[in-house]
Amino acid sequence: MEELGALAEHIETLVEAAAETTMMQPLHEPGGYYYLKQPGKDAELVLANPPWHREVIESPVEMEKFIKERMGDFKKPVIFYGDKSIVLVYDFNTRRDVAKCDLVPSSQWNALVKLTGVSRTQKDFIRDLRVVYRSCLADTNLIANLRGIKWDNRDGGDSNLQHGKESMGRQIINQVQGVDVIPEEISLTIPVFENHTFRTRIQCAVDVNPESRTFALTPFPQELHNAMEAALDDILLGLTKTDFPPAFRGSVFNANS
Question: Which of 59, 172, 219, 237 is the most exposed place for a label (fewest CB within 10 A)?
């Protein structure tokens, strides 16, 4: 009981001392210094510990430059990367200080994912190809040919236009260029990420619905997955230079943004 009482008294003394401890910002000292005044002691000039590193890097290329220039500051560095971000950990033992680069999906990638298999009117489909996928479309005649398609609501009259093995129906009455003006598939060469210039080709099926007079663009199976993997492989090339930290596919839990 006496030991417990002595311990309680000691704790109380420490609490009182802490309450009387003050920190003062010096007027003529460089930033990061302060005076610490404790009971019964003279004020002591102290250098504050530096804040945790939470650098935000704009692009994979800038991350590569950052690593090259700061390699001497890292103790046991490691890189984690994935389809969302690249995270450089300064010291894997502590995992406290990090530099992070968020990977921003491109507008073309977002549109292709969002509109996969979604029916679009002729006007909207042409606009997608002309505006959203500008400079991504290999077939420069496709837009003009699509504009030439005429739809009709009459019940009579069949068209000999075929799209694959499926008849286009009676609504199409005028097609100047014949069957070849609507390809069954097209190639889009798009950037996966807004902040990385790498482009990759994605093969898509062109679906035409004569009853609703709509079009849809659908990437073939694994095309989106393969495109993402190709973009990440290209990023990895820049992060696996000689003397660079090891890079792993994954994430670090306490790398706060």
Answer: 237
